[in-house]
Amino acid sequence: MAITITHQVYIERSPADIFNFVLNPQNHLRFASAFNQVEIVSGEPGILGTVVARSASFMGKDISTLHELVAIKPNELIAMKLIQGPMPMDEVFLLEELDGGTLVTLVLSAEPKGMLKLAAPMVKAKVDQQVSTDLENLKRILEEEA
């Protein structure tokens, strides 16, 4: 069972401000509450092919993952693909200028395997809640820093 989660939030900042903030993996520690460590293992922030290691807590388990930056379109799109971790996953940030701010859409697509496949509805509910919280954190941080 494939899982696709889409959340949106309006942030009173420019697409460029949000793009630059999200493109820096270290900033993910500030808004993505599940992450407890983020480290670039190859490449540089903002360069296609850059690989980022993330350590996180999810559903009571500590997990380590590797993500590759697979697509960028300045001020519009950032896409990462999970290349090592518990299940194949894509993460896409879409930015759209709107009414002097930005509509941020985060789309996560995953394909649970093994035991996670059996627990797919529970996994989807937990990820859905986490994504919503993370986008609200992103909004709060960026609007407070404006």
Question: What secondary-structure arrangement, pairings included, does this model have?
Answer:
Blueprint: E1 3-11, H1 15-23, H2 28-31, E2 35-42, E3 51-58, E4 61-73, E5 77-84, E6 89-98, E7 101-110, H3 114-118, H4 120-144
Antiparallel strand pairs: 1-7, 2-3, 3-4, 4-5, 5-6, 6-7
CATH architecture: 2-Layer Sandwich
**Helical content band:** 25-40%
Radius of gyration: 15 Å
Number of DSSP strand runs: 7
Helix/strand class: alpha+beta
CATH level-4 homologous superfamily: START domain
Proportion of residues in β-strands: over 45%
Average pLDDT, all residues: 91
Q: Shape from CA axes?
A: globular
Element-by-element helix/strand order: EHHEEEEEEHH
Helix run count? 4
What does the main sheet amount to? 7 strands, antiparallel
Separation of termini?
A: 41 Å
CATH class category name: Alpha Beta
Q: Classify the fold: give the CATH topology.
A: Alpha-D-Glucose-1,6-Bisphosphate, Chain A, domain 4
Question: Can you characterise this structure?
Answer:
This protein has helices at residues 15-23, 28-31, 114-118, 120-144, and strands at 3-11, 35-42, 51-58, 61-73, 77-84, 89-98, 101-110. It has one domain (3-144): Alpha-D-Glucose-1,6-Bisphosphate, Chain A, domain 4, CATH 3.30.530.20. The protein is globular. Helices cover 29% and strands 45% of the residues. With 146 residues, it is an alpha+beta fold. The protein has a 7-stranded antiparallel sheet, covered by helices on one side. Strand 3 (51-58) and strand 4 form a beta hairpin.
